[in-house]
Amino acid sequence: MYRTAFELRRQKLILGHLPFLGISYQSREKDEEYREKFQNKLEIKRVMKVALDYNVRFFSASSHGFSDLVPLHLEAIKEIEEEEETEITLIVCISVPLRIGGAKINDYRRWSTQIVYETKKTGRNILYKALNDPILNCRPGWKENIQYARPYSVTQLKGRLNIEWRKWENSIDILSEWRIGWIEPGSEVDFISLARTDLVGEIIDRTREAGYRCLLGSHHFGATAPILQDAGIGGFDGYVTPVNKMGVMMFPSREIVEKTVIETRRGGKMIIATKPLAGGRIKPEEAFSYVFQSVGVDACMVGVASTKEAKEDFETAKRVLSKKG
After folding, report:
1. What is the pLDDT of the chain when averaged over all its residues?
2. pLDDT grade, residue 4 (50/70/90)?
3. Residue 181 to residues 14, 176, 209, 215, 289: CA-CA distances in angstroms?
4. Over 90: is that where the pLDDT of 120 sits?
5. Which residues, other chains included, contact 67 with Cβ-Cβ below 8 Å and sequence gap of 6+?
6. Domain extent at residue 142
7. What is the CATH number of the domain that holds 306?
8. d(CA 200, CA 53)
9. pLDDT at residue 323 above 90?
10. How far is Cα 81 from Cα 72, in angstroms, rounded to an integer?
11. Neighbours of 126 (CB within 10 A)
């Protein structure tokens, strides 16, 4: 039997996977460095071995279509399980394949739609926050493209937004050989929630019908969680969302996300923090003290690119957790 939500809350730590896919959240040069390094499966397994040494048995992953390095990462997980004679439970993020009518969703227009909604909802300058977010600015041409992207209208979304269900189901089916604890529909959930909460409910239902528990990915947690709560959407165990002391990728704002975390956990949902170190911009002691002590998340994903980083981060996290009341 795969590990439960109780075990995840007890263990607290999840080995992140994005560095293994060549994503640093620092620079294109650093991305290339990671990509070259982790084309060697042995390098992935060396880092995984350190995580196992710290009793981390939950790993995150992405579905095959996300990157050409995903198959190598998943192979490494299988091999390290056999070599270390242990079981690893995965939380797998799957991007939701969206279309408006017959056309693919434009990511910049999707973000622009979200920014307009959150600006109206909060009265804050959300565009300014997005323009100055250091992780978003790792995307090529982010500032230029987001300023001029035309948002989708609510009418467009309500009348024409749809999901490529066959593609979604194939992404799940290909994972049948791994121990999957949760499927995480990606942050497209934020966009869908603006006008089609019924589609969010259908994603959750189809995930459960396939035999998996569900966590929802969110980059706009402070806006999305209240929408889904008001719509009465259930059947999922919680959210995977950025939480860090700098407020990086926490939308609409760090303060709103902090408040929403408390309210959501009070309602029985788990909160799994991503980007706790803000892509290496926060020192580990400060980062883990914030997510575990100040905010009180249930668990967090920690992406590391070397055995040295893994030892430092997991050692620090364990020390911070040992102080937690």
Report:
1. 96
2. confident
3. 12, 12, 14, 10, 26
4. yes
5. 21, 22
6. 5-323
7. 3.20.20.100
8. 38
9. no
10. 14
11. 22
Query: Under 8 Å CB-to-CB from 41, ≥6 apart: which residues?
Result: 72, 75, 76, 79
Phi, psi of 104 (to 5 degrees): -65, 150
Written in H, E and C, the secondary structure of the chain is: CCCCHHHHHHHCEEECCHHHHCCCCCCHHHHHHHHHHCCCHHHHHHHHHHHHHCCCCEEEEECHHHCCCHHHHHHHHHHHHHHHCCCCEEEEEECCCEEECCEECCHHHHHHHHHHHHHHHHCCCHHHHHHCCCCHHHCCCHHHHHHHCCCCCHHHHHHHEEECHHHHHHHHHCCCCCCEEEEEECCHHHHHHCCCHHHHHHHHHHHHHCCCEECEECCCHHHHHHHHHHHCCCCCCEEEEECCCCCCCCCCCHHHHHHHHHHHHHCCCEEEEECCCCCCCCCHHHHHHHHHHHHCCCEEEECCCCHHHHHHHHHHHHHHHHHCC
- Residue 325 above 80 pLDDT? no
pLDDT (tens digit per residue) in 256-294? 999 999 999 999 999 999 999 999 999 999 999 999 999
pLDDT in tens, 209-249: 999 999 999 999 999 999 999 999 999 999 999 999 999 99
Say how far apart CA 221 and CA 3 lie, in whole Å: 25
pTM: 0.97
First-last CA distance in the chain: 30
pLDDT-based confidence at residue 1 (cuts at 50, 70, 90): very low
Give the rounded percent of residues in the chain with a pLDDT score beyond 90: 96
Contact, 277 vs 153, CB < 8 A? no
Domain count, the chain: 1
CA angle 23, 70, 215 (to 5 degrees): 85
